[in-house]
Automatic annotation (TrEMBL):
<feature type="compositionally biased region" description="Low complexity">
    <location>
        <begin position="1"/>
        <end position="11"/>
    </location>
</feature>
<dbReference type="Pfam" id="PF05602">
    <property type="entry name" value="CLPTM1"/>
</dbReference>
<feature type="region of interest" description="Disordered">
    <location>
        <begin position="170"/>
        <end position="201"/>
    </location>
</feature>
<comment type="similarity">
    <text>Belongs to the CLPTM1 family.</text>
</comment>
<dbReference type="GO" id="GO:0016020">
    <property type="term" value="C:membrane"/>
</dbReference>
<feature type="compositionally biased region" description="Basic and acidic residues">
    <location>
        <begin position="581"/>
        <end position="590"/>
    </location>
</feature>
<feature type="transmembrane region" description="Helical">
    <location>
        <begin position="325"/>
        <end position="345"/>
    </location>
</feature>
<keyword id="KW-0812">Transmembrane</keyword>
<feature type="transmembrane region" description="Helical">
    <location>
        <begin position="365"/>
        <end position="381"/>
    </location>
</feature>
<dbReference type="GO" id="GO:0012505">
    <property type="term" value="C:endomembrane system"/>
</dbReference>
<feature type="transmembrane region" description="Helical">
    <location>
        <begin position="444"/>
        <end position="463"/>
    </location>
</feature>
<feature type="region of interest" description="Disordered">
    <location>
        <begin position="1"/>
        <end position="27"/>
    </location>
</feature>
<keyword id="KW-0472">Membrane</keyword>
<keyword id="KW-1133">Transmembrane helix</keyword>
<feature type="region of interest" description="Disordered">
    <location>
        <begin position="567"/>
        <end position="590"/>
    </location>
</feature>
<dbReference type="InterPro" id="IPR008429">
    <property type="entry name" value="CLPTM1"/>
</dbReference>
<protein>
    <submittedName>
        <fullName>Uncharacterized protein</fullName>
    </submittedName>
</protein>
Length: 590
């Protein structure tokens, strides 16, 4: 079925599985300050830095209505986009009188809740429009009425029904053939994302009508005198100009900023009654523009791939349902999370770039960390994730592979028909007890890990559905990375225990990561996220606490080489014998 004329063209996007959502939750807190920052900057930039030219006072337009002027309101519901049937009492669902314009008080805000009985046309993907009219008290809104005055009445039309693409059939299936006749499972009824309209799946897109249960009508408090040909571009589309005098009517805004996707009600043949909550009231110019700028920032983030469909609703839900003090704390710590994340990344690169010895460091953990990052990247690629998440994961893979080159010798073997990469341990790693302890720790931990991975993969194969065998392998491995990834951090703990020292660790980077973990703990309680991701946050806490305990228990060994390849005694003034020995070592190295 072709999309109705009233439906908007959907933006391109991609879906993802559970680990994909877990990756996106990491940047959710960071997007809060970014979105608000763009919206506020855009508003004040257009407010204060717009070019101001001398304007002839006779060329200025102003509001036709005065502050506090009483208005009457009529709200009609009709299946036609154009409305002139003012005599039809059945279409009139709400009428209010003496509403003071642009004033705040109990008499300025009116509400009404009612039940609407949809017609057969509306049940079969039909349309419905709300036609709201305002007029000075005592004047009619009907142009055919003898007492009608064009400058005394104004109105606007707004659709009450929203069209969204139907969620496509779930193409996943049981790979063991447990489902009946290989049937394709239908997803549970839910509000689909606009991006699903541009899915790469073949076949026409079916559109479904959704009912908006809340209609909020705001009259914007705007008494600005604009130049006739210099109305701000963000206001011009909403300004209703009187063609005879050139002045403008009060701006009517249908505020849907707080109307979330999950509040929409699907309309079908089984629906008999639909709830409708109506509200009319004033809104300040600043608040109205701020809502518009935030919505535009959401669209900009979605177009650049930094925000997926539905994430804007989750952000709004935090503001609606969260504690105001907790929201302020969340915004502050999200900014700190970005700073600590950058500092941890910088110190990690700095550590491995200047590291001259692998003594006391687990080389196998570096290799396994790269494999885990590669698995997550392939899973995101298989689920058509946004390019920004893919780019972030891809860069992480490259960095992890670069760290392998710093931890081990990488050589290209050209003896065979196909060149192969060979990895060889560095002398500082293989010539002491570090390699021995690393092998012991990885040996026993690998037994536990393989049993967990095999058990979870069999469970996933028997009781879960997948698109293909390749998807099953990736999803199983990715889930194991999130659930059992902390096991890969344990070999370093074992090496620290056997060497009775932690001086070889990059403590600056680990400190920043530990601070980020504390911030993640806060987000785990504030923001809705998958259970596996929430458990992964707390498992990191346990590992870092053990690291801190080891740092407290084991004394500092100044003779041990630190993260930059120097020992504590190197900072002392060297003797002539030390200088001679250093020169001989340098010659041997060269």
């Amino acid at each position: 079925m072709s999309p109705p004329a009233a439906a908007a063209v959907a933006a391109a996007g991609g879906g993802g599985g559970q680990p994909q959502r877990q990756q996106q939750q990491g940047g959710f807190g960071q997007s809060i300050t970014g979105i608000i920052r763009i919206a506020v900057f855009w508003y004040f930039a257009s407010k204060f830095f717009s070019p101001k030219k001398p304007v002839d006072p006779s060329n200025l337009i102003s509001n036709l209505f005065q502050k506090g002027e009483p208005l009457d309101m009529w709200l009609y519901l009709s299946e036609h986009q154009r409305f002139n049937d003012f005599g039809n009492e059945a279409s009139l669902v709400w009428h209010e009188t003496n509403i003071p314009y642009a004033t705040w008080g109990p008499e300025s805000t009116r509400t009404l809740s009612l039940d609407y009985h949809p017609s057969d046309t509306l049940k079969n993907n039909g349309s419905l429009y709300a036609h709201v009219f305002f007029a000075r008290s005592g004047y009619p809104p009907d142009p055919n009425d003898p007492e009608y005055q064009p400058q005394a009445a104004f109105g606007r039309t707004h659709p009450v029904v929203k069209y969204l693409p139907k969620s496509r059939s779930d193409k996943r299936k049981s790979l063991l053939g447990n489902s009946k006749d290989g049937e394709v499972f239908e997803p549970e009824p839910q509000v689909a994302d606009d991006t699903e309209a541009d899915s790469k799946d073949e076949g026409p897109v079916e559109w479904i009508s959704y009912w908006k249960p809340n209609i909020t009508i705001n009259l914007v408090e705007d008494f600005t005198r604009y130049a006739h040909n210099a109305v701000p571009p963000n206001i011009a589309p909403y300004l209703n100009i009187d063609p005879s005098q050139g002045n403008y009517y009060p701006t009517i805004s249908f505020n849907e900023f707080w109307l979330l996707r999950d509040k929409l009600i699907a309309i079908n043949e089984t629906v008999t009654v639909l709830p409708l909550n109506l509200e009319v009231g004033p809104i300040s110019m600043m608040k109205w523009q701020l809502f518009m700028q935030i919505d535009q920032s959401f669209q900009i983030h979605r177009s650049y791939g930094s925000m997926v469909e539905g994430e804007a609703d989750e952000l709004k839900r935090v503001f609606l349902e969260g504690n105001p003090y907790l929201l302020v704390i969340t915004m502050v710590v999200s900014l700190l999370h970005s700073v600590f994340d950058f500092l941890a990344f910088k110190n990690d690169i700095q550590f491995w770039n200047k590291n001259k010895s692998m003594e006391g460091l687990s080389a196998k953990s570096v290799v396994v960390s790269f494999l885990c990052q590669l698995i997550v990247f392939l899973y995101l690629l298989d689920n058509e994730t946004s390019w920004m998440i893919l780019a972030s994961s891809g860069i992480g893979c490259c960095i992890e592979f670069w760290k392998i080159g710093k931890a081990m010798h990488i050589e290209v073997d050209r003896t065979g028909k196909i060149p192969m990469l060979r990895f060889r341990d560095r002398d500082s790693y293989a010539s002491n007890k570090t390699k021995e302890y690393d092998d012991i720790a990885m040996k026993y931990l690998s037994y536990v890990l393989f049993l967990l991975v095999a058990g979870f993969s069999i469970y996933s194969l028997m009781y879960e559905r997948h698109k293909s065998w390749y998807s099953w392998v990736l999803s199983s491995l990715t889930s194991c990375v999130y659930m059992f990834g902390f096991i890969m951090m344990c070999p370093q703990l074992f090496i620290n225990y056997k060497l009775k020292s932690v001086a070889h660790l990059p403590w600056r980077q680990m400190t920043y990561k530990f601070l980020n973990t504390i911030i993640d703990d806060l987000f785990a309680f504030v923001i809705k996220m998958p259970t596996l991701h929430r458990l992964s946050v707390f498992r990191d806490d346990l590992i870092f606490l053990i690291y801190l305990y080891q740092r407290w228990v084991y004394p500092v060994d100044k003779k041990r080489i630190n993260e930059f390849g120097f020992g504590g005694e190197d900072e002392q003034t060297p003797s002539n014998t030390d200088i001679t020995t250093a020169k001989e070592d340098e010659k041997k190295t060269n």
